[in-house]
Amino acid sequence: MLAHYGYKDGSGEYFIIIDTEKCNGCGNCVKACPYNVLELVPNDFDIEGGMMAAVREEERKKIKYTCAPCKPTSGERKLPCVESCDQEAITHSW
User: Fold this and answer.
1) pTM for the full predicted model
2) Given CB 3.0 to 4.6 Å as the disulfide criterion, which of 51, 52, 79, 89 pairs with 40?
3) Domains of the chain by range and CATH?
4) What is the pLDDT of residue 49?
């Protein structure tokens, strides 16, 4: 399942998307995020349980601003959280 964390407004869509089937709860993205946007939470989508990455509740409505310093300016650079994910479980839309 793809979990979309963020919002849509008149200026665009701002989401961090986490594939709950790919995320293994390693925490690399949490460590890589310089703005403390991510956290590990229980994976309620997995029968076996475990942990998964998620956007902190207090950050969901301000991702556009909090993540702006990390926003890629070229196609080569990715957000630190995306780059750190060996499972390729994190993407973004904006």
Assistant:
1) 0.86
2) 51
3) 2-93 (3.30.70.20)
4) 79
Ramachandran sector of residue 90 (left: φ over 0; alpha: ψ -120 to 50; beta: rest):
beta
Compute CA distances 87 → 37, 59, 92, whole Å: 19, 23, 15
Q: What's the confidence (pLDDT) of residue 25?
A: 94
Picking from 30, 34, 82, the residue whose alpha carbon sits closest to that of residue 56 is 30
Digit-coded pLDDT (tens) for 25-74: 999 999 999 999 999 999 887 778 799 999 999 999 999 999 989 887 76
